[in-house]
Amino acid sequence: MTTLVLASASPARLTVLRKAGVEPFVVVSGVDEDAVQEALGPSAAPSRVVTELARAKATAVLTELPADVAADAVIIGCDSMLLIDGTLQGKPHTADIARARWRSMMGRSGTLLTGHCVLRVRDGATVGESSADSATVVHFGTPSGDDLEAYLESGEPMQVAGAFTLDGLGGWFIDRIEGDPSSVIGIGLPLVRRLLGEVGIGVSELWGPR
Ligand SMILES: Nc1nc2c(ncn2[C@H]2C[C@H](O)[C@@H](COP(=O)(O)OP(=O)(O)OP(=O)(O)O)O2)c(=O)[nH]1
């Protein structure tokens, strides 16, 4: 049976896949995202940035796979960033940055881009590849000052791209989205289904025992 390898440390992506019937083999890529982005240059299109980051993550774990996994596997790498005011934003990392972002984006909208790369692997070699990004417009609500401070205090916004979650505390402050919710959380299931199809895999082949 083909093993789905998730090239990500993201608990969100792992949860999305588990709820969708797949128990992935997780290998964290450790890719230096800043270095990849710098190599692409300042004029790289946002969709290319997230897709190349996803490709770098998937590619990086190929050599880390045990032989029994690498015999028959599909590796998925992802990268999510928020495109707003013409700039790509990753994780804010600090409360001050998260606060400034929320004060700027509340009541407005941005586009959450998630790049995806799927590598089909047989006997340790890449025999197929498909990649694409998904874009979801996110309409931000207007949290009160107290709610925003409490949200920052929770620590959640610092750890996620765009300083918000759809499926966590951030959900109180997202008015609506236009696009695929799983892609906002971190891995777009309908897009991954298409990409898996392009390398000859049907999603139900990956579902564990029901
Ligand atoms: N639960 C949840 N997480 C979100 C949401 N939006 C973004 N995130 C998370 C997913 C990813 O873990 C993180 C985006 O950062 P990256 O794409 O660089 O992934 P991360 O560094 O977490 O792991 P990786 O680089 O794949 O090993 O933000 C959301 O709506 N819900």
From TrEMBL:
Its cofactor is a divalent metal cation. One of its GO terms (molecular function) is hydrolase activity. Transmembrane segments: none annotated. It holds the Pfam family Maf. The keyword Hydrolase applies. It catalyses: a ribonucleoside 5'-triphosphate + H2O = a ribonucleoside 5'-phosphate + diphosphate + H(+); a 2'-deoxyribonucleoside 5'-triphosphate + H2O = a 2'-deoxyribonucleoside 5'-phosphate + diphosphate + H(+). Keywords: Cytoplasm, Hydrolase, Nucleotide metabolism. Its main location: cytoplasm. It comes from the Bacteria. The keyword Lipid biosynthesis does not apply. It is an enzyme of class 3 (hydrolase). Gene3D superfamilies: 3.90.950.10. InterPro entries: ITPase-like_fam (IPR029001), Maf-like (IPR003697). Its EC number is 3.6.1.9. It is found in: Cytoplasm. The active site is at 79 (proton acceptor). Belongs to the Maf family. Nucleoside triphosphate pyrophosphatase. May have a dual role in cell division arrest and in preventing the incorporation of modified nucleotides into cellular nucleic acids. This is Nucleoside triphosphate pyrophosphatase.
